């Protein structure tokens, strides 16, 4: 297994990407986004997880974060949110794509090496150590510009599910520790 993308520095600040299986646009409903936010807030409060910046898109999320044993925290986050998002999709009478989404998630589980019942997230979390100010600023800009480049909003701070609001001096959805 490659060591290229592993969180080796226990005190390091990392840029992390967590992607939905097949990059499917699943995270399109407020209920699903709130599951992710509530889980991140729990990790902050209970799991020694520091969040510096974040952005949830329709098929992935980016975090700038730090935590002792980051790999285990991300694993637990993904395991919990996978279960909760699967349940939310299954129980949502308004979900017009329910059959397709459940098929996709179930198929990914069956095809996984562990032959799981379902699989929501792609394997890994692609941690990149941010060890200088230039890298921090570049990743922070990239993360906050994601919804703008996707055409969802004209200004980063207009995207509710992002820390861009905090960095623009507004109250955001989650508490963040400023990097710059």
TrEMBL record:
**Residue ranges of every copy of the Transposase IS200-like domain listed in the record:** 9-146
* Pfam entry (one): Y1_Tnp
For biological process, the GO terms are: DNA transposition
Highest taxon, organism lineage: Bacteria
Q: Which GO terms describe its molecular function?
A: sequence-specific DNA binding; transposase activity
Q: Which residues form a coiled coil?
A: none
Checking PANTHER family in the record gives:
REP-ASSOCIATED TYROSINE TRANSPOSASE
**What is the protein name stated in its UniProt record?**
Transposase
């Amino acid at each position: 297994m490659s060591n290229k993308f592993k969180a080796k520095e226990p005190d390091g600040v990392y840029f992390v990407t967590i992607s939905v299986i097949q990059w499917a646009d699943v995270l399109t409903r407020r209920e699903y986004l709130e599951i992710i936010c509530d889980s991140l807030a729990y990790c902050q409060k209970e799991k020694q997880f520091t969040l510096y910046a974040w952005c949830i898109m329709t098929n992935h999320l980016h975090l700038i974060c730090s935590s002792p044993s980051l790999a285990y925290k991300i694993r637990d986050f993904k395991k919990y949110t996978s279960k909760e998002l699967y349940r939310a999709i299954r129980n949502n009478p308004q979900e017009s794509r329910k059959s397709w989404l459940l098929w996709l998630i179930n198929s990914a589980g069956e095809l996984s090496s562990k032959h799981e019942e379902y699989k929501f997230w792609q394997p890994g979390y692609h941690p990149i150590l941010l060890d200088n100010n230039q890298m921090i600023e570049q990743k922070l800009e990239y993360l906050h510009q994601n919804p703008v480049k996707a055409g969802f909003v004209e200004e980063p701070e207009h995207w509710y599910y992002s820390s861009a609001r905090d960095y623009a001096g507004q109250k955001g959805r989650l508490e963040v520790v400023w990097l710059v």
